[in-house]
Amino acid sequence: MTLLLRAVLVAAMLIVSAVLVAAGQARTDNRSKPIYFVHGYEGDSGANCNQWDDMTGKFRDWGHSGTFFRVAYYVDDVNCNSWVDHHGSHSTHNASGHSGGSHTANTNIRHLGYHLAWHIYDHYTRYGTYVDVVGHSMGGLIIRYAIAQTELNHPDFPPNLRVEDVVTMGTPHGGFRWPCLFCPLQGDQMSMGSDFLVWLENNAWEPDGYGGTQWSTFGSDNDGWVAADRAAGTGSHRDPVNQYIGSCHKTWYTPVNDIGHTDFLHDTQGGFTAQAYARHCPSGWVFYSGLPWPVRRADYAVTFGDQ
Q1: Residue 36 three-state SS
Q2: For residue range 199-208, what is the model confidence (pLDDT) as tens digits?
């Protein structure tokens, strides 16, 4: 090999390396990444992480081989396999509502996002490993805040987060369907027009982890807690202007599917028979009579990032 050819090859390799570093990492598009499953609001009763059994079981059937984290953050959570409590400090970043060394319904969602960010960083990001996240209901707000503050270089948060895909299901990006009266702090924060939700719209429109994050947001007309537009992140009747989150991939399940708030976790049908509207950047909304049901659609979203 001549010196000139060797110099050209070395230069080319340096350019490719620089591009990869700038981009963070090329998409993996496989089912080997670790996945965080973040439950929603449960009040002071705590959550039973067995609610993830149907989804995680099907994910294994469909070939997911990475570690599954069923995240716990309430003091009375049960059957979870990973707690956020020892990642970060209980006295840092909007600390409130602590009990028994953990959290309650009066803990600020911002504080939970802070803990989750450090959990992801401590376990994976610091080692250069990417993860995916599935958030149900309030869980989607927790990860949205975590990535946003990290991207904004908030001093309380890790230097970066490697989160490749996020799926939120029934998450009140635009607030609850009904006013929340006499609610604990978290209920107030998820009420339409709250300071917390307004902050997210202004500062966490489509937050990106290191190398970019693909966001998929699911809503259903049959969700009694969170209206389809507020969960999918678009305005009423799929208004392209009034939106709540800039997710490129939105799914709005129609009434014929009868998908309620918790059905997002349990509807494991594998066929392409659901009726829904879907939107993928930069195109507009399209109606489909043959889309995957929620659990399968979540699988595709964390695998390929385009759901």
Answers
A1: strand
A2: 999 999 999 9
